[in-house]
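Worked example 2:
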Amino acid sequence: MTMEPKFVTSHPAVLVGDTLVIADLHLGVEFEFYKSGIKIPSHTEGMRREIEALIGRTKAKRLVILGDVKHKVPGVTRQELREIPDFLYALGNKISVEVVQGNHDAGLKEFVPANVRLHPGIGFSAKECYFTHGHAWPPADFLGKKYVFIGHEHPQIEFRDPLGYRYTEPVWMRMEFDREKLKKKYRKLPADLPELIVVPVFNKLSGGISINMPVGKIDRYQGLGPLFRSAKMQASKIYLLDGTLLGELKDLF
């Protein structure tokens, strides 16, 4: 039986089977604000409680974190060293926790507790799913899966009114791969390609990328990671966190 992913209403989390999936925690991002003269209390404990509430609500048996558990790159801050081991240990005592290393996670393996499983950045497969951060090409076996989950992109949609007021909302993206683009990396492709699901950033403080706005001199956002750039971005289906389907990205500019 196919496990259809279900968005957890009002939260940047998705349930697939008995697995709860989140991405981009960026624990310790408050230190970046501190260096700029802005003092923000640590949100680590609050995020742990939020995740534990989601585990209880969904009755998940496994938690997958799609990378960027920590924020500082390169290196590790004292805040990260102090808070992340306890954060992961507490979650690991409640549920099976698996972490895919992201591009911000250099050095993370040195202080991950024993009750948490750490995977390399290329990701891992489980039944019909492949889980990866999204900043690196995974091995070709992901092509045989039903769904591929990535973080890394921090997608959001910017809304504008006639008076110039703007605000943003994090979004889910469901995307089809472009066969011609994938062929440049993987020569042999199956008849049916997996669906790519982009998970919104979990930590609200770490910001997002407005995918329906120009980026510098580029009129349309092209994406950060290779899997994202190998998908049909303009035809992707965009969902708000409450599950509202906004339509295809090409209609949201």
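The two ends are 37 Å apart (CA to CA). Helices lie at 30-35, 44-58, 78-92, 179-183, 226-229.
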